[in-house]
Each structure stands twice: as structure tokens, then as C-alpha cells.
Amino acid sequence: MNKPLRRIAIFCGLLVLALLIRDNWLQYVKADTLREDPDNRRVLIARYATPRGDIIVGGNPITGHTETTSGDFKFKRTYKNGAMWAPVTGFVSQAYGANQLESIQDGILSGTDDRLFFRNTLDMITGKEKEGGNVVTTLNAAAQKAAYDGLKKQGGKGAVAAIEPSTGKILALASFPSYDPSTIAGGGDSDAAAWKKLDKKNNPDDPMLNRALREVYPPGSTFKVVTAAAALENGLYTTADEKTKSPDPWVMEGTTTKLPNEGNIPCENATLRVALQYSCNTVFGKIGSDLGNDKMLEEAKKFGFTEEQFTPTRTSASVFSDDMNPSQTALSSIGQFNTAATPLQMAMVASAVANNGTLMKPYMVDELQTHNLDALEKTDPEELSQPLTPENAQILQSMMETVVEDGTGKNARIPNVKVGGKTGTAQHGVENSENPYAWFISYAKLSDNSSPVAVAVVVEDDNAVRDDISGGGLAAPIAKSVMEAVIDSKK
Amino acid sequence: MSSTTNPPTHHTSTIGAIGAPSRRNTELALLVFAVVIPVFAYANVGLAIHDEVPAGLLGYGLGLGLLAGVGHLAVRKFAPYADPLLLPLATLLNGLGLVAIWRLDQSKLLQQIGQAGGKATNQLIYTAMGIALFIAVLIFLKDHRTLQRYTYISMAGALFLLLLPLVPGLGADITYGAKIWIQIGSFTIQPGEFAKIVLAVFFAGYLMVKRDALALASRRFMGLYLPRGRDLGPIIVVWIISILILVFETDLGTSLLFFGMFVIMLYVATERTSWIVFGLLMSAAGAVGVARFEPHVKTRVQAWLDPMREYTLSRTPNGDGLVHSEQAMQALWAFGSGGTLGAGWGQGHSELIRFAANSDFILATFGEELGLAGIMAILLIYGLIVERGVRTALAARDPFGKLLAVGLSGAFALQVFVVAGGVMGLIPLTGMTMPFLAYGGSSVIANWALIGVLIRISDTARRPAPAPAPNPDAEMTQVVRPS
């Protein structure tokens, strides 16, 4: 009986050996794959096990963290004035992931970024808790507050984007209606209820939409700044004060349709300055038609149209179509037809004009830091393009300043500060049935000729009487308060 | 010179009587380790979870030490020549299992779903009952060969135990699918665990009697000895019983265990390889056939083939009427997250397995917290227990003892393989518990009884042969001296 017994002994040994081999495969070969599997809840548990780093504005964190008592996630994100800052921060939630800046800089904030490896190892050796790094933004708290409060006071949907023209630093990024990301930061029932309420299906206002970056609106007359730039750059007209060849009424090329002007305004053969001052559709429509689709598109592209921007939060690409006939090009050149722009895009247009023709790449992350404030990475201002020569930029500046001093943009005037701007009222909907969007883009210039801020405001007001809506009336006051906030904070 | 002047005082034939060491002191020394290691592990869990040495450390250490000490004294008294490794190895596993159960008791998640809290205390009580049964086996089973008398009673008993869960009113459907539990008052018992031992007794007794007939009366065909038709009877009966268990109790593990044990014992009894071939073919046919038709077994197989799919299905109700479980994938994640060295006691998240985290899936907790190193050590301990059991079979002097020892060891090895392989995704999951580690009274008590029987056989095997009757002639030659 002993021979089969020895074989059974070997058989049992083989069973154990098979288990050992399987275990080595599982815990050595496949260990990393299993450990880092996104469905493995341990990944999330580890992510929330340490306090998350903060997003910082002007030296003060606009985020925080709190220890939770229920569930297996230890720390929960909190936001200070979350609704106001939501377009900047995005959200991070124990149940619903993260988006925008919270998601893009998750490696730094959660402390898992490779650049933090050395410090984390050091902390581990010295027995300190791992902590996430900080993200320092370029935003200006006063400007952001002015923008958000202005929109909130207005009460309709809208957005504000403000940029420092010389660097491209984003100073304000507001969207209304907004939401408080604190309400969905946890993983509990109240967070689920809040999440459901924010869902676009249940909430037609779509408060989670970052309108400043992700929504494109027809820019209306504010786009005439781009058309004017195209006319100057292509040598169609060389000064602000020469007469243009613009009949009024003007029948669009290839059609029998007259392009109308709003009201009884002096548009016939008006100079560029007067045309911008009174917002003549005929003059700018004809410029677009004369230059043609290609040249208009080229200029629009130089201002950043048709490209997504990464601030690092991605923006939607603003639209200027190609392959249009002359009448469509004419309509597009006054900001109608297919033309559509994000508020940030129009702020970029104003900023390029203010910065003497140089467009800087817009960005909102100034610096990445370790949790004890050592710099890991600093963003340097970067030139994106040169849509205007300095001379032409100055011509356009003087035209935009006339708009604010004597034209449609009077509501944006600031004592002792030169302000250039352009209003816009964009129609939309089938046969323009819906409430128009009120636009205002502007920049401020200090006495030393430096420009601290360029801003774009769009307001859509369902409640306002249709006639009341004009960029000058609804949007310009908000732009003014944002510019004032930036100028005041410079003092 | 002195050797010639001092003639040997003993006859050579009696040397064996004084030579064989009992190894009881070795066992005692090993037991110290088997108690101290879990005590340190227990302290480690407390420090990791609550940042303090747990208050129950002294009680736990004393409890485990006391149980091990009493067990050791019983072995010293009633089985002095027993194998010295079996008791310390079982004690070590039992102690580590207690620590892991206590560790999972601390999990809020498991407490919420009623899978933890006070389970370690229960397990300590079960352990005490197990040791008591172990000692009872040593005291009352003076010679394992007395079990031979109960061959057919054992068969009836085993069948009775196996069928108990099917009795209406008794069977408790407390696990998803497998009906292997009975409920008496507030206690649940897994009769299959006890049936394992009783069945081994029946097989050993039956095969000892029938082995010559089974081995010799056969025809040789293509290099294999084919048994005669009527000798095929018993194996077919056992096979059918296994299949019935599988179908009615939907328990693949137990069915595989019993059939595997029978084939091993049949092979040892007859020394015919053909039995192994028949056994493998029949179990494969049975398993595949049932897996195809039994929905519960089918989902287990699917979970084995694609655990991630089962995980996803368990999260999204799809109304296919089947119970999908995330456990298989959660167990794999636990193992993977442990890696080579593990997260350390108390620092893993194996509670994510939720249901049966401290019983069927307890190995995943070890995998996550002690890592590859810990699991390899535990598997080797199981391997050692099995090999000491087979060693006992080799050393046993009687065929019944040999068969019983190899049957119990083989069943133990199969159970470890089926459970550990299932949890680690090597084979489909079955509802069985890891001997000694897992939470559960039936399992602990039955396995202590199993160790008790093995110790009894090994004591008989290693006991020195009784001194031969004094040979008057030999006496004479010693007494008569040249004057």
C-alpha cells in the first residue's frame, strides 16, 4: 500500500504547488493591475484617505476638507463660496468623480503626482501623513465677486470672463446660475439627492454648465471688433476716420435681401469709428462680404476662434464657418449666422486689442505647489498669436474707446480710466423668436497706458422686456464693476 | 578490552523499545510559537486599527495558550508517541484565524450588514469545543481500529448527515445558493464537515475488506486494469450520491471533496491507476453536466471565467433572475492590493467582500494584509499538515489505519485546494470554509476531531512495538556465564 501512498503524497504536494503558483501570479504578476484597477474601491479609499490639497486664489484657499464620520472615505472636499468659484474649481465628489480643475490637477491635489514622489517618500520616512499639493490660480477674488454678484443681481443666465491682457492670466470666470460643489462632495444620500437635482434632465437651468468656457453664444455686434481688425489688417481701410464705401440700405451680394440697421443711425459711408460707435450692420456686413470668407476666417482664427483652449480647463471651440457664400459671410461678420463664441473667446478678442495686437494664451493655473508651499511648476505667459499690428491695434483701441465715451457703451465709463468696449445684442432662436443675448466686451487702460483687464459679459434674460435688452444696458454695468474691482486691487 | 569484559546487558531485539523518542518536548516548543505568533498578530491589529494594544490581548493570549496547553497535556497522556507537528500547526492556523476574525469584527461596514461583531468570541468558544472534542477522541478512541466495527453504521450516519439540510424545516438557506446548513434554534450547523470524517471511516472499513476483490478480479485492457462490472458498483453509488449532493444542495465543493476522497482511498487500497482515470472522468462528466443545468453552479462558473462581468452585473440589476455576486472580483482585488508583503494587519480593506468575508473568503484578508509571503506560509502550513497525515498513513501498521489516515489527509488537502483555489480564482468558487482559519463552529470542531483521529493513528504507528515475550532460552544464555 505504500507505493500509492507516496504518489498521493506527491499529488497533495502538487495541489499545494498549484495554489502557490496561482498565488504568485495573483499577488506578484497581476498585483499592480489589480491594485490600480479603477473599479477597485481601494483606489478611491486611498484617494480620500489624506487631506486633499487646496485651490488658492490670491493667497487664500477657496477649498477645504472635512473629516467624514460615515463610510470608508475619510476626507471630504469643502468649498468656500462654492457657487461663485464653481467654474474655476469644478467639483470633486466621493460618489461622482471630478471635473475641470479638480480633475485636471487631481495628481497634485491628491498627492499622487510623480513630482510629489520624493516628498511623499520623505514624509513616509519621517512618519508624516501624506498630503496633497496646492494649485495656485491667477484669479482675482474681487473681480470674481463683482462678476458673480453682477450676474446674480441680473438674475438671468449669463457668464463673465476677464483676462489680464499682457499675460493672459484669467482674472474672473463666473457663470450663473451656478451650484455649490460642496453639496455633492460626499457619498451620502443628501449628495445623491443634490446630484439628481443638478442633473440637466431635472434642471433646465443646467447650473453645472460652465458657461464662461463651455457654452458658445452668437456674439452679435461684439464680433464687429474682429471684422474691423480684419479690415485694418487686410488694408481694406487704413484709418479709423476715412469714409467707407458703404451704401445704406445695402443689399447683400447674391441676394435681394437688405441688411437692416437697428434704428435710424448714420451708417451710409460711415467711417469705421462711427460705424463701431453706432454698431452699423451695413458697414461691417459689407466689410465681411468684401474681404471674403477666407480672410475673415483667417483673422477670426488669429483671435482664437475654431480652437479649443486649455486653460488648463478645456473650453469649447468658438465657431466661424468656412465655405460660406458672401451673404452668409456678411451675416457672420456681424456675429450672426453660424458665428458663436465662448465668453472667454470674446474676452480674448478685447485683450488682444488692449495688448497692442498681441494675444496671450489664457491660463488660470499660476503655480503648482507641494503642501508646504515649495513651487513644483510655474506657468509662464505665452504668446498665442498676433492678430493685429501694434499700429492697427491702437487704431482699433481709439475706435472702441469712442464707443464707451460717445456710443452704445456709455454705461461702462470709469472716471480717470480709459475704457474701450463694444456692445452686442445677438438674436437667436427660430426667426429670432427667443430673447436675445446681451453682450459687452471691454478693456480698461490706466494712465501709464498699461491695460490691467479685458472682460467679456454675456447675459440672457428671459424676464426682461425684449426691447430693454442691449449689451449697453444689461452687460456693460457688470463689465464696469469687474474692471473697477481689478483696478482697485492694483492700487 | 572493556567491551570483551562487559558483555551486552540487553538483547539486540529489544533495542527498539527504548530508542524511539516521543517528541513531546518538540511539540511543546512548537506550541509556544504557535501561541506567541497569533498573540503578536492580535496586538498588531489593535495597534493598526485603534492605535493601542487591544484590551482583550491578555484574555486572548491566555485562552489560546490554555487550550493549546490542555491539548498538549492530553496528547502527552493519551497519545505520547503522536506526530509532534500536527497539534502546533493546527493551533497556529486556528490562532491566526481568530486574529483575522477579530480584525474583521472591527469593520464598521461588516458590522452594519451583520457579518461582524463578537464573532471572534464565538470562534474562541467553538475552538474550545473543538479542542474538547479533540481530547475526547484521544481519551475514548484508544485504538483507531475499533472504528472498523462501525463501518456500515458510519455509512448510514454519513448519508444521514449529508441529507439533513434537505429535510424541510431543518435546512437553512442562509448562504446564497448552497443548501449545506441546518438550523437548530439559533445555531446553524454544517453537517457536511462532520460527514467528511464519518465517510472516511466507512470508506476505510469497506475498502479494507473489499480491496483484494477490487484489485485482483479485473481484466487488462490497453494497459489499464478494468474492474469487473459488479465491483464498479460502490464507486458508481458514491458518484451518484455526489451528483445528488451537487444537484439538491448545489454544493460543488462538498461533492468534489467526497468523490475525490473516495477515489484517493480506492487507489491506495487497490494500487490500480485505472481507478484514478475512472474517477477523473466521472467527476469531470458530473461537474460539467451539472454546471450546465444548475443555474447556481452556472453563475459560479461564469464568475470564475469572467469575475469582472459578474461584478458589473451585481451592481446593475438586470432582472435575469440569477444572483450575481461581486465577491469573486472583490477577493481578487484584495489579493492584488496585498501584493508581495501585504498591507499589514488591520490595514487592508477586505471588508469590501462583505458577505462571508470572515468565513469562505477569509483567505483574502490574509492575502491583502499579509501579502504573498503570508499566503505562501499559510499554504505551506496546510501542506505540512497534509504531508504529516500521509506520513502517518505510511507509518501505520494496519491497512485500516493507512486508509483512514490517507482519506482524512486527502480530504483535508482537497478542501484546502477547493477553497483556496476558489477564492484565488484558480477554480470556480464553492461554499466551503478554510479549515481552522474560517469563522464557523462546525468547521473548527470537525477539523479538530480530524486532527484528533490523525494523532491517534500516528500514536499507534509510532508507538514502539511491545517487547517480545521473554525467551527462556535467551534468558538462559545470559545467565549462564563461564566461571
Automatic annotation (TrEMBL), chain A:
GO molecular function annotation: penicillin binding; peptidoglycan L,D-transpeptidase activity
UniProt domain Penicillin binding protein A dimerisation: residue ranges: 52-135
GO cellular component: plasma membrane
Residue ranges of every copy of the Penicillin-binding protein transpeptidase domain listed in the record: 158-484
GO terms (BP aspect): cell wall organization
Coiled-coil segments on the chain, per record: none
Protein name in the entry: Penicillin-binding protein
Lineage: Bacteria, Bacillati, Actinomycetota, Actinomycetes, Kitasatosporales
Automatic annotation (TrEMBL), chain B:
Cellular component GO terms, alphabetical: cell division site; plasma membrane
Compartments in which it is found: Membrane
Topology in membrane: Multi-pass membrane protein
GO function terms (MF aspect): lipid-linked peptidoglycan transporter activity
Source species of the chain: Streptomyces caeruleatus
Main location (coarse class): membrane
Region (Disordered): 462-483
GO BP annotations, alphabetical order: cell division; regulation of cell shape
Keywords, alphabetical: Cell cycle, Cell division, Cell shape, Membrane, Transmembrane, Transmembrane helix
Chain ranges passing through the membrane: 28-49, 55-73, 85-104, 124-141, 150-168, 180-209, 230-248, 254-270, 275-293, 361-382, 403-430, 436-455
Protein name as it appears in the record: Cell division protein FtsW
Coiled coil: none
